[in-house]
Amino acid sequence: MARPCKKKRICAVPSSLHFGPDSETTSCEAPILMALDEYECIRLIDYEGLTQEQCAVQMDAARTTIQALYSSARRKLAQCIVDGRKLHITGGNFSVCEKQTGCCRRYCSHGIRMIHRKGDDITMRIGVTYENGQIFQHFGKTEQFKVYDIQDGTIVQTEIVDTNGSGHGALAGFLRENQVDTLICGGIGGGAQSALSEAGIQLYCGVSGDADAAVDAFLKNKLEYSSEATCDHHDHHEHHGGDCSSHGCGEHGCH
Questions:
Q1: Considering only CA atoms, which of 169, 106, 176, 119 is closest in space to residue 142?
Q2: Over the chain (255 residues), what is each successive 10-residue block's mean pLDDT?
Q3: Which of 20, 119, 171, 172 could, after both became Cys, cross-link 195 (CB 3.0–4.6 A)?
Q4: Distance (Å, rounded) from C-alpha 127 to C-alpha 179?
Q5: Which residues contact 157 (CB under 8 A, 6 or more apart)?
Q6: Is 0.70 surpassed by the pTM of this model?
Q7: d(Cα 206, Cα 186) in Å, to the nearest integer?
Q8: H helices of the chain, where?
Q9: To the nearest 10°, the Cα dihedral for 83, 89, 92, 97?
Q10: Nearest one of 81, 92, 79 to 34, comparing CA atoms
């Protein structure tokens, strides 16, 4: 007896299931049918920026299965664009995220962000700009982040990661690659704030003092932060160059 196909996990059914060209140019051919698990591959890989391996973990499927689904979905999109055919998203072998009994972890469209890592259910990953135990005060010059894995409101693991020379806009991508979904920092420029927002990272800036104490306060909903903790010279510095430390940003120039 053949073994039944394993259902792929998707975060949610998309709000729009039908797409197509203007009525005047619509092809007479039947619409292209894209399964919901194929759609989820497109969402995770092309929209959220995951690798196929990360997508496989997210959807609880084999990487070879994801490769096949992704290739099929991309081919169907190409057919719709080139031939002017309608696209209907329907069917597939999947199970939808059950928000109440166990969210499907990171990148969930329900808004609950979780990370599947080393077999543990990590409900949050917090990054802090870090230097000698303290919160480093200029995001764009950060050389290290201290990263905290949170499970059920408790710190279960920490590690210090080097940025390896990444700076300013590149740091948002660095944090995303390290699966950080919440950042605590001191001063930060407007451009970096936008990059973090686009990466889906929640920002708590204008924080100073001991890094561990700040995370503890955050978990107790007692963290004091500011939504306007920007570096006034930040954009000017990026345009004209120069050493940011000359402005005192690494110490107290950010507010």
A1: 169
A2: 71 85 69 93 90 86 93 95 91 75 56 44 82 93 91 87 74 84 90 84 92 94 76 38 36 39
A3: 172
A4: 9
A5: 148, 149
A6: no
A7: 4
A8: 36-42, 52-59, 63-83, 169-177, 190-198, 211-219, 234-240
A9: 140
A10: 92
